[in-house]
Amino acid sequence: MVYEVRRLRLLRELAAHGTIAAAAQACHLTPSAVSQQLGLLEREVGTPLLLRDGRRVVLTEAARVLVAHTERVLAELEEARAQVAGLTGEVRGTVRLGAFPSAAVALAAPAIAACRAEHPDLRIVLDETEPDEAVEALRHHACDVALVYEYTLLPRIRDEGVELRPLLREPLLAALPPAEGPTALAELGDRAWIAPRSDTALRTVLERACQAAGFEPRIDYTSDDYTVIMSLVEAGVGVSLLPRLVTEPLASRVHLTRVSGLELTRTISMAVRTGSGRDPRVDAVTTALRQAAHAIPA
């Protein structure tokens, strides 16, 4: 029997999110609609797919087998769409690009300008979004290409429906008041720290790096504005840890240096749906992003 792809997608989302309510929210459906569709899929399969465990549901072995095959089916469908789109040899239509702020400045802006010059019939819609949201948007076709990042000391992005293509790896730099020289992280244990408010990943890396150096950071200041963070450092009230790409556009007397004894980096990658890379629109955007990354000084 051939199972409906829409119901298989719902089962995959349930596997990813753990509850019917969360899967329904991700798919912009009501929980009752999701339950109904999964009930139909269960009857089609002829064997139980879900077991109740309090508020959560547990996938049976049969459901896990279906989810594994669903990822391959969706990848094949993406590749088929990409090949059909490439038959005309034209680069036209719309590509939705997601990018976090510093990548939007350094990578997305020049890439969009290059695409407009080379492919006038291609429209790129840019949405500022963080990596977790961007990956979710890719899965639900609300985004076609996303710029995402991964930090050392944190788990990598793992999603069979999303393919990552690394663009560049940049160091995390200690931001110190003017006139201070290179230092080991352990020497900053008694300093006040300045951390981003919403970038919880960077804040977690900061905390784990300090813990690896033997101390708990005393975070006295938080801000989502990197200009504010740099100004606080320049004023001598604290220190911070920032990706290089964030600091480059900000003119400042802040002393930026790699910390010794610990390799701290952020890897920026392009994310696309598995199988969609041969779509000429997606290929045009990823090519322009790669060229923009190559133009950034090492």
What can you see in these coordinates?
The protein contains 10 helices and 11 strands. The chain has helices at residues 5-17, 20-26, 31-45, 61-86, 101-118, 131-139, 200-212, 226-234, 244-247, 280-294; strands spanning 50-53, 56-59, 93-99, 122-128, 145-151, 162-176, 192-195, 218-222, 240-243, 255-258, 265-273. Strands 3, 4, 5, 6, 9, 10 and 11 form a 7-stranded mixed sheet that branches. Strands 1-2 form a two-stranded antiparallel ribbon. It has a two-stranded parallel sheet with strand order 7-8.
What characteristics describe this protein?
298 residues; alpha/beta; 7-stranded mixed sheet; 11 strands; 43% helix; 23% strand; globular
